[in-house]
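Page 37, continued from 36.
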């Protein structure tokens, strides 16, 4: 495992966006892609969420996150760094 994926998440979210972001993080954990997600301040507007995942799962995780962002319409809320 290595720290492979970072998500930039907007700090100011409406209730629907908050729920969607929580679902995304919960799904990453429940699917076994990671055990813990670290949250740090990035700047005044964003948090940086990072987590470790197996190298062989990295592309599958990227695909999952991108699909989730698209379906939940989180384009301006969550980006992969």
């Amino acid at each position: 495992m290595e720290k492979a994926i970072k998500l930039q998440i907007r700090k100011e979210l409406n209730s629907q966006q908050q729920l969607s972001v929580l679902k995304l993080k919960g799904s990453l954990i429940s699917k076994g892609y990671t055990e813990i997600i670290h949250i740090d301040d990035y700047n005044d507007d964003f948090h940086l969420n990072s987590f470790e995942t197996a190298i062989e799962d990295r592309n599958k995780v990227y695909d999952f996150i991108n699909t989730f962002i698209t379906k939940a319409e989180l384009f301006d809320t969550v980006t992969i760094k």
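The longest helix spans residues 15-30. Flag for discussion at group meeting. DSSP finds two helices and four strands in the chain.
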